[in-house]
Amino acid sequence: xxxxxxxxxxxxxxxxxxALAQRPARQGNTQRQQQEKQRQQQKQRKQKRPAGxxxxxxxxxxxxxxxxxxxxxxxxxxxxxxxxxxxxxxKGQAKSIQEQFRTNLRGVLTPDQAAIFDxxxxxxxx
Length: 126
Prior knowledge:
The chain is built from five helices and no strands. It is an all-alpha fold. The chain has a domain of about 70 residues. Helix 2 runs antiparallel to helix 3.
């Protein structure tokens, strides 16, 4: 009788072993899901970024409502262009897009605001 129980137990373990061996694969899927979730969160942060930038510029440069709207559209255009580059994996051109943005932004600002912009947002770390 004990022999039958032991045989059944061993047989059951042999059947259950493959199912237990597949658990790491499920964890791998979980890791992939977490990575995908992180990518989605990064994408959402990037989409929210122009609003954060406009507040930074408004505070530092004391923009008028008209200027703020123009800067908002410049930021959106810059981010759209950089996003296209990221899709094409041409990150080398991002610097020229950023310089174009800075040039266009200076065109919106008054001379005093442009001087403050150059001083605070020159992009060079001191």
